[in-house]
Write a structure and sequence with these properties.
Helix content is 28%, strand content 20%. Helix 4 runs parallel beside helix 20, helix 4 crosses helix 21 and helix 9 packs parallel to helix 14. Among the domains are: 64 residues, Single Sheet (N-terminal domain of TfIIb); 319 residues, 3-Layer(aba) Sandwich (Dimethylsulfoxide Reductase, domain 2), CATH 3.40.228.10; 144 residues, Beta Barrel (Barwin-like endoglucanases). The strands form 10 sheets. A 6-stranded mixed sheet has the order 5-4-23-22-21-6, with helices on one face. 59% of the residues are buried. It is of the alpha+beta class. The chain is built from 30 helices and 34 strands. The structure holds ligand MGD (2 copies), iron/sulfur cluster and molybdenum atom.
Length: 906
Amino acid sequence: MSAEFATRKVPTYCYQCVAGPDLLTVKVEGGVATEVEPNFCAAGIHPGGGKVCVKAYGLVQKTYNPNRVLTPMKRTNPRKGRGEDPRFVPISWDEAMTTIAAHLNAIRKEGLTDESGYPRVAASFGGGGTPQSYMGTFPAFLAAWGPVDMGFGSGQGVKCYHSEHLYGEFWHRAFIVAPDTPLCNYLISCGSNIEASGGVAGVWRHSRARARGMKRVQVEPHLSVTGACSAQWVPIRPKTDAAFLFALIHVLLHEVNRDSLDLTFLAQRTGSPYLVGPNGYYLRDRATRKPLVWDTATGMALPHDAAGLREALEGRYAVDALEVGPDDEVLGEGLLEGRTAFTCMVEHMQQYTPEWAQQACDVPAATIRQVAHEYIEHACVGQTIEIDGQTLPYRPVAVSLGKTVNNGWGGFECCWARTVLATLVGALEVPGGTIGTTVRLARPMAQRLESVKPGPDGFMNFPLNPTDKEKWSARPNIRNAYRTMVPLAGDGPWSQALGPTHFSWMFLDATPHGLPRVTLPDVWFVYRTNPAISFWDTPGLADKMARFPFVVAFAYTRDETNHFADILLPDATDLESLQLIRVGGTKYVEQFWDHEGFALRQPAVATRGQARDFTDVASDLAERTGLTPGYIAAINKGAGGIPLKGVHGDFSLDARHHDRDTIWDAICRAASAEVSDGKAAHGLDWWKQAGVATRPYPRINWYLYPTMVARKLRFELPYQERLARVGAELGRRLHENDMHWWDTQLGEYQALPKCKDFAAPWVAQVREDGGQPAEYPFWLLTARSMQYAWGGNVGMQMIKEVADNIAGHRGVIINTRRAQELGIEDGDPIEVATPARKVSGRAVLRQGIRPDTLLAIGQFGHWATPGAKDFGLASLNELASMSLDLTDATGSGADLVRVSLRREEL
Ligand SMILES: Nc1nc2c(c(=O)[nH]1)N[C@H]1C(S)=C(S)[C@@H](COP(=O)(O)OP(=O)(O)OC[C@H]3O[C@@H](n4cnc5c(=O)[nH]c(N)nc54)[C@H](O)[C@@H]3O)O[C@H]1N2
Ligand SMILES: Nc1nc2c(c(=O)[nH]1)N[C@H]1C(S)=C(S)[C@@H](COP(=O)(O)OP(=O)(O)OC[C@H]3O[C@@H](n4cnc5c(=O)[nH]c(N)nc54)[C@H](O)[C@@H]3O)O[C@H]1N2
Ligand code: SF4
Ligand SMILES: [Mo]
């Protein structure tokens, strides 16, 4: 049989959603992909047992989707708009690339930044960084180019796990936070819909844990699939989780015996014993300016790092000290009274009783007490466990937060409360407890533990954007102004996408006082993202896109964003293109591996039509813009995922044009050398056979605790003195520049957060839009579906067929009794509206949702994507506003909106 007709099994990876990457093999018969199978050879190394989820089974249909864009195209209708047919016509690759290069070369001549100081080139990529595993060496092109604005938001970031990303990384190097599911025995999950969103590894780990006896309490307004297979469902009122969590802390601090907390952990491993002065800042040693603690051994105040310290966890002490505030101002000097940070917290949390919380969050006080007591009973304070020969604390309790709980107003307070709950029983970064997975802001990004370095005051370092007079700047590098407005966003490669990415869109119409006028980018690249569907205020966003002068979209099918493109480039998709990525270690939510290494995605089948591999497109762009030397230099430095020169050899490419396979062959060799400790340097052909290569990753590295102990550092909890200072400084800088529009956000910088009515801004939005809140009595929410990867695979018939068999996918979920009161029957046409806009859909009646809540799964409302445009599903994003009032201090908002509901008369 000739090779062409042979049956082959091709190993590759899937990273269609952030819960990956997962490993699979593709069966190829006669050159045609016919089946997706697990990668059985990887069963022993992959936390999902070498298996993939339903979405990956859609890859065969994805490849052969008849609606794919298979040639480069250009728009021939100069008018852009939703109602305008772009009249795309096929063109050659050469014409497409010549056109793009002409725009880029004009920019290089004119200057890379415009009159406002913003980059003239912008680029948006979607879904939590997953496009990076499909875009080959394009990052090397962008690096060679120079300044690029990557802050035009696309739904990820500010609608995503946002507060958790920033605060989580600040407190425990947890860009993503996860329970240590294999050991955890009691999990409070506030709107974390892990059975839909956790991917193969998440679902598998949780099912095993539940079979083992882990009790999961699902706190959320609607009964998700996760709630349905939890031991208990607590139907909380939307956006009130902070009240619930604060009351849990209250019970732990005011109703249970103090000895049931981990007092040793609090005293030795956190900032709890630090003395807080009358103005709320730490009391410091006069000579060294180190924070002071009360030493019970000597009966004296000593610096936090004094040898042999016996920290007093609670109490008030008069000490000779300095109190230093914002901008290094000395606020007090001499004999000052200090309370320990722990005592401050105990006093502060007194007000948040379960009875108070019941009023706010609609969870009975008795339920709050039950959960708090079960949490403490399961915490095993004092017990230890051996991991890789080391004895560590064993604390099998955790709290996880879903995306709507941890972004927008209240996100900070929920993240703080969750982390404090872990801290109180010593369950932070230890086996069984709450642990982080990935770092994205601190460096080095690939090594979480190495990123832990000593910072100020005995805590970890963190790359906060400067707020001091000399270094803070009112002239942002990109349009969303993350560096100016959000100290916690840092300034690394991910920071642009983690800033307030809706500002880039909003400020196009009106830039607030003090910032340089926000401009349209001359060239906008879009890849694997669909902000015209996934962001808020999608109709408004589409109108703005229509004003962009030159848009280049890498396209799979036509969609609502590339509808506004000037050039469409046909993308070689998942089974057609080539890339090597890092796998293993600890990753997004539940991807905890006992191995680390690399996996290859390779062309299992020939590319269809004229679709082209991203690496070839990037190399071509580099050539046509005269940037090849810089582009190759970037690849050599690691823009392809691994530096080509390292301790195990030099695989660097010379500074000239290379074809795709030559580039990836060099990257493969460097990866092989790294993973084998220099014993091998296998090239691309070897990786095509093997698909994946790993080495062991010690389980002890899942936990940050040993590193904190080894580096003699404390977790910066519970008291947020540093953030309070940063917030005060930021406020001064803004006011010095007559910028007052961020004042509400500045209120979020608090040493001990207050619990407020965090839902209020969304209710106020109704008035803003000209309505009466009483007439818009429902909360419209959204949730994940296991079948869909955002809106990325909505065009696959098979995915739709599977999804429609799962409750809730055919319309808007409404509480049965409430619907009956409104005369709405299952399947009825309904209208969901804000004062500004309305959408239509079908009613899905379910008992498992609060009467004041509606739920629209996923993100739909497509009007251009083939297949999906005929679904007729209501979209939350059409109704949700994009607004400064709905933006918190980290720059995020949330996916919820106040609406009315009625039966639609046809
Ligand atoms: N209503 C609602 N909105 C939400 C959310 C929600 O839960 N509900 N979640 C929010 C969150 S957390 C996130 S992270 C964002 C994600 O939102 P986005 O990052 O914008 O992701 P998608 O909507 O999946 O857009 C992916 C696009 O890529 C295209 N595509 C798919 N495969 C390929 C390919 O192989 N090649 C090319 N070139 N293109 C491809 C698809 O057609 C689609 O248009 O959405 C946010 N928006
Ligand atoms: N299959 C699949 N998996 C995915 C993705 C995907 O598109 N498809 N996307 C990935 C991405 S980018 C993200 S960000 C994650 C998101 O992962 P999750 O956060 O787990 O996602 P959702 O299902 O959107 O979470 C919504 C849940 O929160 C509840 N909820 C809404 N508002 C509130 C509230 O105020 N309080 C409480 N307690 N609950 C509330 C809803 O009822 C719903 O069950 O999923 C990731 N995993
Ligand atoms: S969970 Fe599914 S879609 Fe997401 S990366 Fe894994 S296999 Fe792919
Ligand atoms: Mo997300």
